């Protein structure tokens, strides 16, 4: 199979300020959205049941999702069909009270049985436990980002090439988080895993670009195009794969995967922009403005 041809971009036709304008503008908008969400809700992104606590029950019912949702009070957070199991649904509720998860689960069981639904399983998670998971997830993302920054600094041992990678990875995380807030996608353990994957994707493509420009022979623009030939092909392939997964998971109502796929698609698209606009502009400044000397 032949590698797709990546068009040659005439970077010499654009100044460094022009190249960074779009990435920095989108990053600023993303930070405004995240800050606004934080001011309103107390968290930078809407939290899912994994972090707030709640009840999840599996029921069997001769009804559709809307009818099931209307049965319960309060209304469930989500009603998802179980693949391959007709009339079987996973119903999720957000915690009402941090200390009453068990009582809430018994109330939900009573409402389900009163409606004629068969309760196959039910489990609850307290808000306090969800808060512990939230803290651990945030620490995990912070440690991954810090470790990535230290590794990059050790590899390149120069401020601008290192900060270019760190800034690109930071933007690759912030833009999907802002879009999650706009689209109502909640933060779950699955979307946290997607964000951690984006850090890896971002570092991979940025180190590829930095290595071609700083450590291989050739003109700056030739080196950039060589890196793009590999990097763009790699990233667009991943975008297509994640988009297909998202569509398939949505059609078959597979829990969690649609949200994970959307976050990865957004993040990978942001990575293309940040790598070949923001990072290229910083590296060109480093090469031609005498900072590297």
Which of globular, elongated, flat, extended, rod-shaped describes the shape?
elongated
- Helical element count? 9
- Count all strands and give the number: 4
Q: Remind me, CATH topology of the largest domain?
A: Multidrug efflux transporter AcrB transmembrane fold
Largest sheet: 4 strands, antiparallel
CATH top level of the largest domain is Mainly Alpha
Q: Low-confidence spans: pLDDT under 50, at least 5 residues?
A: none
What fraction strand? 5-15%
**Element order, helices and strands?**
HHEHEEHEHHHHH
Give the averaged pLDDT, no decimals: 86
Helix content: 55-70%
How many domains make up the 3D coordinates? 2
Terminal Cα separation, in Å? 43 Å
Radius of gyration: 23 Å
CATH superfamily of the largest domain: Multidrug efflux transporter AcrB transmembrane domain
Biggest sheet strand line-up: 2-3-1-4
Overall structural class, as computed from helix and strand content, comes to: alpha+beta
Give the name of the CATH architecture of the largest domain: Up-down Bundle
Please, could you describe this protein's structure?
It is a single chain. By secondary structure, the chain is α+β, with helices and mostly antiparallel strands. It is 67% helix and 9% strand. The protein folds into two domains: 11-47 and 129-288, Multidrug efflux transporter AcrB transmembrane fold (Up-down Bundle), CATH 1.20.1640.10; 54-125, 2-Layer Sandwich (Alpha-Beta Plaits). It has a four-stranded antiparallel β-sheet. A hairpin with a 6-residue loop joins strand 2 and strand 3 (88-94). The relative contact order is 0.14.
């Amino acid at each position: 199979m032949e590698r797709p041809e990546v068009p040659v971009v005439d970077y010499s036709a654009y100044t460094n300020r022009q190249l960074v304008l779009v990435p920095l503008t989108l990053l600023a908008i993303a930070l405004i959205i995240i800050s606004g969400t934080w001011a309103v809700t107390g968290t930078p992104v809407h939290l899912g049941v994994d972090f707030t606590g709640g009840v999840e029950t599996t029921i069997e019912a001769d009804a559709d999702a809307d009818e099931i949702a209307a049965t319960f009070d309060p209304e469930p957070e989500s009603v998802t069909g179980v693949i391959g199991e007709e009339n079987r649904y996973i119903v999720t509720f957000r915690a009402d009270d941090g200390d009453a998860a068990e009582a809430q689960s018994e109330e939900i069981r009573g409402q389900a049985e009163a409606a004629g639904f068969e309760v196959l399983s039910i489990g609850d998670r307290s808000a306090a436990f969800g808060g512990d998971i939230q803290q651990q997830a945030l620490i995990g993302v912070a440690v991954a980002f810090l470790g990535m920054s230290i590794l990059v600094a050790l590899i390149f041992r120069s401020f601008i090439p290192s900060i270019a990678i760190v800034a690109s990875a930071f933007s690759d995380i912030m833009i999907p988080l802002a879009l999650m807030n706009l689209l109502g996608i909640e933060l779950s353990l699955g979307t946290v895993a997607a964000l951690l994957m984006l850090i890896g994707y971002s570092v991979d493509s940025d180190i590829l670009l930095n290595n071609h420009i700083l450590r291989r022979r050739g003109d700056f623009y030739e080196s950039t195009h060589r890196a793009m030939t590999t990097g763009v092909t790699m990233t667009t392939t991943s975008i297509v794969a994640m988009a297909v997964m998202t569509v398939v998971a949505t059609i078959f109502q597979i829990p969690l995967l649609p949200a994970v796929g959307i976050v990865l698609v957004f993040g990978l698209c942001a990575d293309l922009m940040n790598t070949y606009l923001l990072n290229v502009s910083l590296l060109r400044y480093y090469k031609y403005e005498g900072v590297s000397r």
